[in-house]
Structure prediction request, 553 residues.
Amino acid sequence: MLMFMNDLRAKLHELVNGEVDDTDEIRELCSHDASLFELKPQVVVYPNDNEDVKKVVQFVASNKKANPDIYITARSAGTDMSGAAIGESITMDFTKHFNKVLEVSANEAHVQPGMFYRNFEPETLKYNALMPSFPASRELCTVGGMVANNAGGEMSLRYGKVLDYVNELKVIFADGNEYTVKPLTKAELDKKIAGGGYEGEIYRQIFELVDKHYDKIKAAKPHVSKNSTGYNLWDIWDREKGIFDLTKGIVGSQGTLGLITDINFRLIPKEPFSGVLVCFMKNMDNLGDIINAVLTKHPTSFESFDNYTLNLSIKFFPYFRYNLGWGGLTKLAIKLIPDALILLKGIPKLILLIEFTGQTQEDVTAKVKDMKSLLKQFKMEAMEEDDSEAKSWKFRIMRRESFNLLRKKVKDKHTAPFIDDLVVPPVYLPKFLPQLREIINRYKLMATVAGHMGDGNFHIIPLMKIEQESERAKLEPVMKEVNDLVIKYGGSLSGEHNDGLIRGPWLEQMYGSEMVGYFKELKTIFDPDNIFNPHIKVTSDWKFSMSHIREHF
Ligand SMILES: Cc1cc2nc3c(=O)[nH]c(=O)nc-3n(C[C@H](O)[C@H](O)[C@H](O)COP(=O)(O)OP(=O)(O)OC[C@H]3O[C@@H](n4cnc5c(N)ncnc54)[C@H](O)[C@@H]3O)c2cc1C
Prediction:
């Protein structure tokens, strides 16, 4: 077996047209994503085309029994925060050759998974169209990673998540063949099952699973506006509509069910006008009530970031040069500094960004004014911003870049995403938030808070000296307490960042063993030999995860 593993690069090199790299530099680069973990691959493959992907899958499938440690980890931009884009065997990087947009119209876009969202959006905007569920990492991530994580972002409050925008996928299953996955009527499903073969058998088994346990599976769907925890079993089969849609199972599966080679997105028209109300809160006492009040007016987005982020943004001002260029930076400096001086007199604890979009500027302005008068009762400083692009973009950039600033600029501590993506129905936030804060303070975590307020989706990123044993020892008890609290209020452990190495082991706490059993059945149907990303989601193990906490920074 050792012989085989030593020879892996050579064997893969013979097999594929794309590059195969096992240099220390590349293995080191691919051993990290944006999570707490590190797993160093033996080899990194850059498939040139679908045939390359198929060949590698067939190679792994046929050698797995004799070499149980061999497996494939799909990787796109590697910005995953849960530890799902790293592995110790073969990492397959889609960014080098699978990075083209194939076709775009006003209604849909056909694109390869390794294309960066920052390159994709300009293509759709040519048709005044948008895939609106882009994450805050929009400048860093790819569309494939967005699909595999079921990403969400600032506009998810109004438009939903990536799951709602996938028309069709091409996926390489564990037998090494490519299949088109799209919604099917019951008659089409029956035909596929009757056709038999590998594909027919997969459809037969999954239909049996979701139909047999229909009510239990539907009841397990978390009652939150966004969820990336577990597999979306509840969305696959809709008896009332008679639609069986396997894309719903593959979106959010983090490369554990198959490899995505092609994506067809539904697009929506971009609304031409937008306006933002920026609110500065000196304390968080009324936060829950404020959120509930804002939601009655159905904003397009409702985002926030805290005083740590604001201070960091001001301190590390030149950082924004990378996004804005020198000209943009100067503009930002001129615009931000007067605001910052006013603000810092009474340092706001939290900044809220409430955005409305519409067909006319008058409509948007009226909505912003209406919101401002609604919020007067909470006695916070509020600034009206009529034109979001021209006036509030500095705040948007701070929000989008908040996690990145922490990752890159705080030198003596490290970002530790482990309670980074919880979601609680907003109605419970007045009770939930003080209890959450109590846990954070009791464990002496220095944590920044930013996120998607309107969804009750909070990104809490402690800064820790994670190399110290005493700090690592906090992870398990804090997760246990915070998860218990989230579950008590009917929330979800992850709204968008997904399970990976960090939350996979906690799925049973959230869903119970019966439901996790159904998740495991789905994984086994697709991937009986565990060749795709075996250490995450339902096949994860807390001890394994903890033994791979990052040591190199
Ligand atoms: C600064 C920052 C801010 C972030 N903000 C958000 C946010 O607002 N919302 C949000 O949802 N996430 C956020 N994230 C997390 C992450 O950026 C997103 O989930 C993103 O969509 C991941 O894309 P990626 O290209 O980096 O994927 P990767 O990290 O490369 O991979 C993510 C997952 O997709 C799988 N995968 C990749 N390609 C394929 C493929 N071709 N086939 C099958 N599986 C595949 C990988 O195995 C892995 O499980 C943030 C991360 C950072 C660093």
Summary: Residues 33-34, 73-81, 84-85, 94, 113, 135-137, 140-142, 144-146, 148-149, 151-153, 254-255, 259-260, 403-404, 496-497, 533 surround flavin-adenine dinucleotide (CB under 6 Å). The radius of gyration is 23 Å.
